Automatic annotation (TrEMBL), chain A:
InterPro entries found in the cross-reference section: Cholesterol_7-desaturase (IPR050584), Rieske_2Fe-2S_sf (IPR036922), VanA_C_cat (IPR044043)
SUPFAM superfamilies reported for this sequence: Bet v1-like, ISP domain
Keywords from the UniProt entry: Dioxygenase, Oxidoreductase
Protein name: Aromatic ring-hydroxylating dioxygenase subunit alpha
Species classification: Bacteria, Pseudomonadati, Pseudomonadota, Alphaproteobacteria, Hyphomicrobiales
A Pfam family this chain is assigned to: VanA_C
GO function term, MF aspect, one: 2 iron, 2 sulfur cluster binding
Domain named Vanillate O-demethylase oxygenase-like C-terminal catalytic: residues: 109-279
Domain of life: Bacteria
Automatic annotation (TrEMBL), chain B:
PROSITE patterns linked: GST_CTER (PS50405), GST_NTER (PS50404)
Residue stretches spanning the membrane: none
Domain (GST N-terminal) ranges: 1-83
Top-rank taxon, per record: Bacteria
Pfam families: GST_C_2, GST_N_3
Residue stretches making up the GST C-terminal domain: 89-218
Name of this protein: Glutathione S-transferase family protein
Length: 311, 218
C-alpha cells in the first residue's frame, strides 16, 4: 500500500526499532503507515531515517532515540514523544527488550487486547488467569492530562502466575493501564518483589499498514532471581497466546461504531478506548460506521474442533 | 535425568514436550533465548549443546540427540514398553517414519513462514513462494486423513496415535501463526480435535486449549 494521508496518524511518533539492533552495518528497512523507510546510524551520532520511494527518497527530519528505542514521526509532530518518568528515576529496575512481534491485525486491536482483562482466564490459563477466577472486578476509567491520556485504574485480578518472578500460586494483582496515545499502552503493575513499587510493561506499536503492525515491547521490572531468558519465555508464551486470538479477530481494523461488534470484549475500558480513538480523529486502522454482526471467529474455531470429537 | 533444551515458541520443541507429557516423563527444561537473542546460533551453543543450531535437544545421561525425529523415536523406543507410539510392526513403523520425514521436509515451509511472520522479516518482501508450499503440505495431510470412500482416518498410521501424529501435529497446529488457517482443511481440523483430547495433551502458545464450555453436546 502507499503512505497514508491521515494527518492525525502522520503527526504522531512511533517506535520503528530497538536502538541496539540498528548498527552501522545493519540499517533497518521497514514500513510505517504504509511508507517504506530505512533507519540507520547517523555518522554524527544518533539515528537517521529516509523514506524509500520511486522519487528517490526524502529524509525524515523527526527521528529520536528514547527509552532504548528509535522513534519516527513522518509528518509534523503534534506533541512530544510521551513522557515515562520512571525511566529517569535512576532505577533499580531491570530493563528488558521483549523482542518485536509482527501481527497481521490493526495495531489498535493489539492495544485493546492488552488491557482487556476479561480474556485472561481463557487465553492465559495458568499464568495470568484461571477458569476458576474468571470474574473481572470493578475498576475505573479516567481521562488524564486534559483528556489526552486514557487510564484504567484500580484493576485487580487473581493470577496463578503473575510474573516470572513469583512462584506459582494464586495472587491478587493490581494494575493501572495507561494509554497515552492510540498506539501505545503501558501497564503499571504492583511489584510482588518490591512492595509499593511498580513494574512497567509497555507496548509501542509500529502501525505498518491499516491491518498489520509490529509490536515493540519492553519490561522495566523488579526481578533479581530469573535470567533474562526465563523472563522472555514467560512473556513470549503470553504474547503468542494473544497473537492467536488477535489473528482471528474480524474485522481487522478497529470498529468504533457503537452499533458494531457484539460486546464479547466490551468491558468499560474497551468502550472508552474506542470512543477516545473515535474522538481523536484518527482514521488509520479505524473502521467507522461498521454495522457487521460478526462475533470474533474465536468461538466458532474453538467450538467446532471439539464438536468434531463428539460427532 | 532427562534434560530438554527448549524455546517456548518452537514448534519442534513442542513435539518433544508433548511426547514427554504423553509418556508421563519428568524432565528439566533448559531454556534457550532463540528470540530475540539468537542464542542457538552462537558458538557457545554449537560447542556445548548441539552443532546443528536447532531445537529440541534432548539429553539423557550421556546421550545427546538433536531434532524431533531422533528425539521422538528415542523416547518412544526407550520409555514406551507397550510400543504403541512407535509400533514394532515393519509396515507400520515404516509408515510412521515416512510421516515423520514429511513433518521435517514438506511441513518445513510452515515452520519457516511462521517464524518469519512472528518477526517482521516478510513485511516488505511478502511471503513469496513459501505460502503455496505451506498450503500444499496441509492439503496432502488433509487428503490422507480424509481417507478413501468416505472412511476418515482417526490417526495417521494404524488405529492408534503414534509419534507420526505428534510430529505432524506440532507444526500443523500452529499453522495459523503462519497465515494458514486450519478451518480450510476439515479432516485435519477433526483429527486435531481428537488429538487434543488425548490423555496428557498439553498446549503451546498458539494452540487452542480444550475449553469445556465450548464443547457442544453430542
Ligand atoms: Fe493477553
Amino acid at each position: 500500500m502507499t503512505r497514508t494521508t491521515d494527518p492525525v496518524a502522520l503527526n504522531d511518533w512511533y517506535v520503528v526499532g530497538y536502538a541496539p539492533d540498528i548498527t552501522a552495518d545493519a540499517p533497518r528497512r521497514t514500513r510505517l503507515l504504509g511508507q517504506d523507510i530505512e533507519v540507520s546510524r547517523a555518522p554524527q551520532g544518533g539515528f537517521a531515517c529516509r523514506e524509500i520511494g520511486e522519487d528517490g527518497g526524502r529524509t525524515v527530519p523527526h527521528v529520536e532515540e528514547r527509552y532504548g528505542f528509535v522513534w519516527v514521526c513522518l509528518g509534523t509532530p503534534a506533541q512530544d514523544i510521551i513522557a515515562i518518568p520512571e525511566f529517569s528515576e535512576g532505577s533499580d529496575r531491570r530493563f528488558l527488550h521483549r523482542g518485536r512481534i509482527a501481527v497481521p491485525i490493526s495495531g489498535l486491536r493489539v492495544i485493546e487486547n492488552f488491557f482487556d482483562l476479561s480474556h485472561f482466564s481463557f487465553v492465559h490459563t495458568g499464568t495470568l488467569g484461571g477458569y476458576g477466577n474468571a470474574e473481572v472486578a470493578r475498576y475505573d476509567v479516567e481521562f488524564r492530562e486534559d483528556g489526552t491520556e486514557l487510564w484504567a485504574v484500580g484493576c485487580s485480578f487473581v493470577q496463578p502466575k503473575a510474573s516470572a518472578a513469583v512462584a506459582t500460586q494464586d495472587t491478587v494483582v493490581y494494575y493501572d493501564y495507561r494509554i497515552p496515545r492510540p498506539f501505545i499502552s503501558i501497564i503499571y503493575k504492583d511489584s510482588l518483589v518490591e512492595r509499593g513499587r511498580k513494574d512497567l510493561i509497555g507496548l509501542f506499536i509500529q502501525p505498518v499498514e491499516e491491518t498489520s503492525c509490529v509490536v515493540h515491547s519492553f519490561a522495566f521490572i523488579f526481578d533479581r532471581t530469573n535470567t533474562d531468558t526465563d523472563i522472555l519465555h514467560f512473556y513470549h508464551e503470553i504474547f503468542a497466546q494473544d497473537r492467536m486470538i488477535l489473528i482471528h479477530q474480524h474485522p481487522q481494523a478497529l470498529p468504533v461504531s457503537p452499533l458494531g461488534e457484539v460486546p464479547t470484549i466490551s468491558d468499560a475500558s474497551s468502550v472508552a478506548y474506542r470512543r477516545w480513538v473515535d474522538q481523536s480523529g484518527l482514521e488509520f486502522s479505524v473502521l467507522r460506521n461498521w454495522t457487521g454482526d460478526q462475533m470474533t471467529r474465536l468461538g466458532q474455531v474453538a467450538g467446532s474442533g471439539d464438536a468434531g470429537v463428539a460427532a | 535425568m532427562i534434560e530438554l533444551y527448549d524455546y517456548i515458541l518452537s514448534d519442534d520443541a513442542y513435539k518433544a514436550r508433548l511426547l514427554l507429557s504423553f509418556l508421563g516423563l519428568e524432565y528439566t527444561a533448559r531454556k534457550v533465548d532463540m528470540h530475540p537473542g539468537r542464542e542457538h546460533l552462537t558458538a557457545a551453543f554449537r560447542a556445548s549443546v548441539t552443532p546443528q543450531s536447532r531445537l529440541p535437544v534432548l539429553r539423557d545421561g550421556e546421550l545427546r540427540l538433536t531434532g524431533p525425529l531422533a528425539v521422538l523415536s528415542y523416547l518412544a523406543m526407550r520409555y514406551d514398553p507397550a510400543r504403541t507410539w512407535l509400533p514394532d510392526d515393519a509396515v507400520e513403523q515404516a509408515k510412521v517414519l515416512d510421516w515423520m520425514a514429511f513433518a521435517e521436509r514438506e511441513m518445513a515451509p510452515i515452520g519457516a513462514l511462521r517464524l518469519a511472520r512472528f518477526s517482521d522479516d516478510t513485511l516488505l518482501a511478502g511471503p513469496g513462494a513459501v505460502l503455496p508450499a505451506a498450503r500444499n503440505a496441509m492439503a496432502i495431510l488433509d487428503d490422507h486423513l480424509a481417507g478413501e470412500g468416505g472412511g476418515e482416518r482417526a490417526w495417521l498410521v494404524g488405529e492408534r496415535p503414534t509419534v507420526a501424529d505428534v510430529a505432524v501435529f506440532g507444526t500443523a497446529a500452529v499453522a495459523p501463526d503462519a497465515g494458514v488457517m486450519i478451518e480450510d482443511y476439515p479432516a485435519v481440523w477433526r483429527w486435531m480435535g481428537r488429538f487434543r483430547h488425548l490423555p496428557g495433551f498439553i498446549v503451546m502458545p498458539g494452540v487452542f486449549p480444550v475449553i469445556p464450555e465450548l464443547v457442544e453436546p453430542a
